[in-house]
Every structure is written in structure tokens, then in C-alpha cells.
Amino acid sequence: MRFTLTAFLPAILFFCSCGQSIEEIEKLPIDEKGKALYENNCASCHGVDGKMGNSGAKDLSESTLTDQETINAILYGNEKGMPPFKDQLGSEENITLLLAYVKSLRK
Ligand code: HEC
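A: This is the predicted complex of the input protein with heme C.
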């Protein structure tokens, strides 16, 4: 229980304090959406460059996951502190744009 709370608290704080809503993100031009989705949902733990590692988050610039594994991690999360984002990202298209952005952080 304590683990769950520590893992999710940065995300909860982040969602409450700042960032654009999904409705606002939907209005952005397509080439800005992936970055906006990332900065609003992921940067609190992974950092804008993917390397921050807050709450034990993995360095996304070092990730070697396949596209499908990356999508699964994003949608369903895991028991080691990655939260599930299935209900926060809106459309399939958004997930594809986010995946492309996450991969662009790799070396
Ligand atoms: C509450 C903090 C938190 C937030 C917010 C968060 N993550 Fe994570 N993420 C983690 C943690 C912790 C791990 C490492 C889990 C593990 O060790 O398997 C992780 C792992 C990952 C992985 C797996 C990397 C690998 O190589 O194994 C990916 C991909 C990922 N996150 C993407 C994202 C994306 C994209 C978002 C935004 C939609 C996001 N994360 C938001 C904490 C977070």
C-alpha cells in the first residue's frame, strides 16, 4: 500500500498542479501532440529528456523495448511503479504519436 502511494503521488501531484488537459492537447497540430502528451503525463517521473528516473522510473533513452512492449508498458503499467495510462491518452492515434515521441528520446 505504502509502495503504491509513493509510486503514484508524483503523478497525482503533477496532474493537479499543471499541464494541459487532454481536451487542450487534442486541439494541437499533429506534430506537437506526442510531445505534449509526454510532457503532461510522463515527464513528472521520466523527465523531459526521459532520463530523470523519478520514483524509480526507467531511463527511456536507454530503453530497448519493442514498439508493442512499449505500448503495453504505457497502457497497462507494471507492478514496479509505472502507472497505466489506458484511460488518459484518448485515441489510438494519440498512443501512436506518444510512442513515436518516446522513441525519439532514445539515443
Ligand atoms: C509515477 C511515475 C511514472 C509516470 C508518471 C510514468 N512512468 Fe513510465 N515508468 C515508471 C517506472 C517506475 C518505470 C520502471 C518500471 C520497471 O522497473 O519495470 C517506468 C517504465 C516505463 C517504460 C519501460 C521502459 C523499459 O525500457 O523497460 C516505459 C516505456 C515508460 N515507463 C513510459 C512512460 C510513458 C510514455 C509515460 C507517460 C504516458 C510514463 N512512462 C509515465 C514510472 C512512471
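The CA atoms of residues 73 and 82 lie 7 Å apart. The domain at 2-104 is CATH 1.10.760.10 (Cytochrome Bc1 Complex; Chain D, domain 2).
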